[in-house]
Amino acid sequence: MADDSLAFLVGDVSRLIRRRFDARARALGVSRAQWQVLFALSRNEGINQTGLADYLEVETITLCRMVDRLAEAGLVERRPDPADRRAWRLHLTDAARPLLGQLRALGDEVMAESVTGIAPDRLDVTIGALNAVRANLSNRAARTTEAKAGVA
């Protein structure tokens, strides 16, 4: 295997992509924390704050502050949870959707730059391998969690 382990290489590539994306997103006035919440919420609209905090792997109070700022900016709204009057469901506002479109376009540009010079067939193999790694880790994590909980 090459000098870099797969884990370090994937981590470095992820960090470099985030750094490049962050620089461009800042030009739109969006911080990393904000775009991460917006993207996560776009994939999980209607999720409660605790669930979104778990998804983003941040403390609930940290997420609450991020959501407060996004709500003040008119990008996110809290709606009462019909099943639990103590909880809030998070939703994107109409004002957030054009910004998400701009952020997705930036993401497409960054990804196009990142794969410049890589043949499509090699890129397909790489994506397939990374999808398999993700599935292996996701399945293993689920099995480990189930085993600890005593679920068969």
Description:
The chain has helices at 6-26, 32-43, 49-56, 60-72, 96-114, 120-149, and strands at residues 76-81, 84-92. By secondary structure, it is mainly α. The chain has two domains: 15-116, Winged helix-like DNA-binding domain superfamily/Winged helix DNA-binding domain (Arc Repressor Mutant, subunit A, Orthogonal Bundle), CATH 1.10.10; 118-152. The protein has a two-stranded antiparallel sheet. Strand 1 and strand 2 (84-92) form a beta hairpin. The two termini are 37 Å apart.
The profile of the biggest β sheet is: 2 strands, antiparallel
Structural class: mainly alpha
Order of strands in the sheet with most strands: 1-2
User: In the CATH hierarchy, what is the superfamily of the largest domain?
Assistant: Winged helix-like DNA-binding domain superfamily/Winged helix DNA-binding domain
Shape label: globular
Assigned CATH architecture of the largest domain: Orthogonal Bundle
Mean pLDDT figure: 90
Give the percentage of residues in beta strands: 5-15%
CATH class of the largest domain: Mainly Alpha
| Secondary-structure element series | HHHHEEHH
Low-confidence stretches: none
The overall strand count is 2
State Rg: 18 Å
Q: Could you give the distance between the termini?
A: 37 Å
